Amino acid sequence: MRHVMGLTDAQEAFTFARWVAGHATDPNTLSLRFAKLWLAALDVPQREDIHAMAQRVIEADGTPTQGQISALKLLRDRLGLTRS
Fold it and tell me: Which pTM does this prediction carry?
């Protein structure tokens, strides 16, 4: 993570991410918080990987809810990915 995202203190970022995940009321809060970092530090294939991972997570328990689908669309926008 330190090399991929250029973080000098990866532990601090992980600690913060864990705290945010535990206190976020919705996934949109997380994507808003990390959008600038993702856009600055990750290339398009890496951002596509994040989106694909999130999609696999919401499909793990079956058909995604409308809220999950909306959050996934917003994540795609915040990752700077064009809709296809």
Answer: 0.70
Q: What ranges do the domains of the chain cover?
A: 2-78
CB 48 within 8 A of CB 75: no
Of 2, 13, 81, nearest to 49 (Cα)? 81
What is the residue-level pLDDT of the chain in tens, covering all 84 positions?
455 556 666 677 778 777 776 777 788 888 888 899 999 999 999 999 999 999 998 999 899 999 999 999 999 999 999 865
Tokens of 9: 């203190």
Q: How far apart are CA 27 and CA 6, in angstroms?
A: 24
Q: 76 near 50, Cβ under 8 Å?
A: no
Count other Cβ atoms within 10 Å, centred on residue 64. 16
- Distance CA(8)–CA(49), nearest Å, equals 23
